[in-house]
Amino acid sequence: MNKKLLLIAALFAGAVPLFGKVVLPGIFSDHAVLTRSSKTAVFGKADPGEKVTVSLDKAEASAVADENGNWKAFLDLSNVGTGPFELKINDKIIKDVLIGNVWLCSGQSNMAFRMSNTELFAKIRPESANNFIRQFKMRSVSSAGEKFRTDGEWSIAGPSTLGEFTGVGYYFARKLNAELNIPIGLINSSWGGSPVEAWIPGEEIKNFPEVVKRDAETAAAAKVYPEKVEKYLFDREKWIVKNNRLVPITIPGKDTKWKSVKQTLFPEGGVLWLRNYIEVSPKDAGKTISVYLQRQNTPFTFFVNGVKIYDHPMESVVRNKYVRFNIPGKLLKAGKNEILFRYYSPNRGRIRFVQPVRIGKNVFDDLPWDMFQEITFKGLKGYPRHPGRPPRDFFNGGRLFNGMIYPVLPYTITGTIWY
Fold this sequence. Notes:
Blueprint: H1 3-15, E1 33-35, E2 40-45, E3 51-56, E4 59-64, E5 70-75, E6 85-89, E7 92-107, H2 109-112, H3 121-124, E8 130-137, E9 154-157, H4 167-180, E10 184-190, H5 202-205, H6 209-242, E11 259-261, E12 265-266, E13 269-280, E14 289-293, E15 300-304, E16 307-312, H7 314-318, E17 323-327, E18 335-345, E19 351-352, E20 357-359, E21 362-364, E22 369-377, H8 399-405, E23 415-418
Parallel strand pairs: 1-7, 7-10, 7-23, 8-10
Antiparallel strand pairs: 2-5, 3-4, 3-6, 6-7, 8-9, 11-22, 12-19, 13-18, 13-22, 14-17, 14-20, 15-16, 15-18, 20-21
C-alpha cells in the first residue's frame, strides 16, 4: 500500500468511531419512558472489553462489557427535563424518550386483563390519546434459564393502542398522570392463571422442597406427554373409522328446525350446530376481523355465510390451545352475517360451548343461540382414554421470573403493582 492510501486510511479511522456490536434489550426502544433518578440504569450486551458510551441530553456515562459481554451504565437524570429526548448508545439512537415514573405491572389475569375488555372502554377510548402514558408489553415467555430478550416495543396511549393496555395499569397510570403531570411508563409483564412460584427466582425456589419435588414430577410428565398425545390421536382416528363414526360436513338447509338455547353444556355426543349473527357496519364491510375464543373442550369447524373459515381439531383441544383466527374481509357484507359452529364428538359425551365469543366488535356471552342436533351418538366401548391436559411445566418455579422479570430486572423503576 502506498503512502497516500495509508494516510487516507488513517484519516478515515480517526474520523469514524469503530464500535463493536451493541445489543439492547427490547425495552430500550423508541417511545421508552425512563425513570427520573440520579442513577438510571442503561444496559445490554457487547463484545467483551468493549467500551459503551451512553448519553441523553447533558447526561453521559460509560461502561465496559465484562467477560460475558454484559454492560451497565448509570445516567444522572435528576436534573433533565421531561423530553422527548434521544438516548444515544454508541452508534444506536433511541428516539422520543420521556423522563418520568416507571411501574412494573405483574401478576395473573387481573393484571393481564386488557382495557378492551373493561366496562368503560368504549367510552374512554375516543379521548384516550395521552403522550404521557405509555406501555411496554412483554410477550408471555417461560424459560428454564435467565433470558436476555430483544423483543417488545413501547406503545403510546391512544384510540388505536388503548385496547392492549393492562386495564389495572392504565387506570393507575391515568390517575398518577393527572395528579403529577409527568410521564408514566408501564411494564406489563403478566400471565393469567400463573402461580406465584413461577415468578420467584430459581435460587429461592430451592428453599421450598415440596415445590422442587412437584416441579420435577411435572417436568417428567411433560417430557412424555407429546408421545401420549400422538398415541391418543392415532387410536382415536382408528376407533372412529372402525365404528363408522365419520360424519361428512353438510351445512343445515333452510328447512332445518333450529331451537333457541342459552345453555353451553350439551349432554349428548354427536354433531351439534350453533348459529348466530354478527352485524357489520357499512364502513367495516370488506374488512378482515378477528375471532377470539376461550379454550374449547370439543373439536369444531367455524363458518361465515356458509363458507368454512377455521378448523379446531382434537389435537388443539388436547393441547389446550386458545382459539385465535381471522375472518377474511371479502366474506363480510354490510348488515347481518351468519356464523355457524359445528361441534363434533364421536362418542357419547358432553359437548361444551365455551363463551365468551368475540368476533370483531361483537361479543357473545350468555346470549341465546340457535341449536340443531344433527346426529346423536350412543356410547360404545373401547374409546381411547384422553391423555388429560398438558402438564404445566411452563409454570414451574422460576420459569416466569427467568422469561419475564429477569430481562427487565436492571431497569430502573419507581415501583411495582401486583394483582
